[in-house]
Amino acid sequence: MYTVTETSPGAEWTVSGSPTTVTVPTDGGTGTATISNTRKLGSLEVTKVVNWNGVTPDTGQTFEICITGASYPSGNCQNADYDGGVLSWNNLIPGVYTVTETSPGAEWTVSGSPTTVTVPTDGGTGTATITNTHLHSTISGLVWNDLDANGFMDGLDAGLADVEVALYRTDDTLAMTTTTGIDGTYTFTDVIPTSYYLLVSMPPDVAFAPKQTSGPPGQHYSIFDPVSCRTDTLTPQGGDTVVDQDGGVYCKKDISGMVFLDVNQNAGYDQGEPGLKYVWVSLYLDDGDDVFDSNADTLITSTQSSGVDGTFLFSGLDPGTYFVVETNPGNYGSTTPDVQTVAVEGSCPASSVAATVYFGDVSPTAVTLMEFVADVVKGKVHLSWQTSFEQELSGFVVWRSVVAEGPYKPVSPLIPATNSPTGAAYEWFDTGVDSASYWYQLQSLPDEQFFGPLNVRPEPETGYVHIYMPMVRR
Question: Which end of the chain is more exposed for a tag (fewer CB within 10 A), N or C?
């Protein structure tokens, strides 16, 4: 009897039939034995890791992993689901295999592919790990001071610093905020891909220029809606860099001014010269030709100089060329142009007053009367008047009539004037009246100008007040 044994051929083989015993027959025959060697096969496992990185997973997403090597010289591929997992290839001829992931798209970063894996000869398993991470996005832009509010960055326009820009999801939840740098630029990084809009909240005196849809190559143009102060919807994909989310803004301006009595007639306002109230001042927007035409230019608004100082104000104006127009009161003359041009520029954050306009007027007579009042006091007629300017005036005389048309007769002595360049207040009581209705005029001397008439009925219980507030010089 003989023992048959195969010396180990190596770990890559399995051996069957060894050792074994064989009997050599006594009759001269042959004893036999069979020993079989089978080459061991291995396996390969790829662990697929998917990091959605805060993005809502797409359950339809798949990732293709392919191997090439001795068993699959032309390659063999399998798919992993959206949440990854382990892919296995079994019964592989031992050796080196290349593991590669087919590109999942620009929104992913892939680590661990391609890689080589050795399938061991001892029938073991080679392993690899491929990790996919969903990329975030970047959104950037520029906010600039659009001086002429045309929606394009041109001329002397420059970036605005310290402007807060907010990124909102389309369900109006705030995603993040940032602030423009010294050059007006801003950037949002690590933006999770979804749908957004940008919003810049403006104070009342700041506005966006008109929205533009395109511009010359290389020129910034404003894409923010001037009413909502927001952009259209943005839907960046992973890895996208969204640029040119630009907005031009400007600061609204005021035009202030004063109508004054030009006492020394030097065509300029001097400290102490009185203001003129109730003077109409109008504001027009130029039609682009730099020439005032009340029929062609746009009337923005009209106002009256107000208060004892004669001031007026046009506020909240957009950039442009404006004409400030004075309508002279009565037969007053002007020492300054009645039409003055003001160029309004939307600079930020400069003073809100673009310009101060002065209109100088001169009275053709010795006195400017601001109001003439009659009321009843204990059955007497109390007359009072206020001037805003006097020069070379001797005084006043009160005239009375029982009918508006006259005749009028003087009923007061000469009431001396102060001749103050800023005016004065006066009063006089008419005691020679009964319960009839009376009409009064006020005469200034020596120019013999009359103001009025005004009417009053001196009844103790039913008397009333009449105020004459001259809009024109009579």
Answer: N
Positions of E strands within 36-192: 36-39, 42-51, 63-68, 76-80, 85-92, 95-101, 108-111, 115-119, 125-134, 137-145, 158-159, 164-169, 174-179, 185-191
Domains defined for the chain, CATH in brackets: 2-39 (no CATH), 42-134 (2.60.40.10), 137-251 (2.60.40.10), 253-362 (2.60.40.10), 367-468 (2.60.40.10)
SS3 state at 96: strand
Phi-psi region of 155 (alpha: psi -120 to 50; beta: other; left: phi over 0): left
Region of 120 on the Ramachandran plot (φ > 0 left; ψ -120 to 50 alpha; else beta):
beta
Q: Which two tokens stand for residue 194?
A: 């979804």
Spell out the alpha helix ranges (H) of 128-251.
none
288 strand-pairing partners: none
pLDDT tens for the chain, 474 residues: list them.
Answer: 889 898 888 888 888 988 989 889 988 889 888 889 888 899 999 999 999 999 989 999 999 999 999 999 999 999 999 999 999 999 999 999 999 999 999 899 999 999 999 999 888 999 999 999 999 999 999 999 999 999 999 999 999 999 999 999 999 999 999 999 999 999 999 999 999 999 998 888 899 999 999 989 989 999 999 999 999 999 999 999 999 999 999 999 999 999 998 878 899 999 888 888 889 999 999 999 999 999 999 999 988 876 568 999 999 999 999 999 999 887 778 999 999 999 999 999 767 899 999 999 987 677 878 888 988 888 889 999 998 778 888 999 999 999 988 899 999 999 999 988 788 999 999 998 887 889 999 999 988 888 888 888 876 555 444 544 443 333
Q: Which residues contact 169 (CB under 8 A, 6 or more apart)?
A: 175, 194, 195, 196
Name the residue with tokens 């391609």: 114
Closest by Cα among 120, 128, 129, 130 to 43 = 120
Report which of 146, 287, 139 is spatially closest to residue 211, judged by C-alpha positions: 146
Q: What is the DSSP code (8-state) at residue 112?
A: S
Per-residue b or e along 115-147, where b marks 16 or more CB atoms closer than 10 Å to that residue's CB: eebebebebeebebebbbbbbbbbbbbbbbbbb
Asked if 113 and 206 count as a contact pair (C-beta separation under 8 A), the reply is: no
Give 340's Cβ-side CA count (13 Å radius).
22
Distance CA 66, CA 429 (A): 114
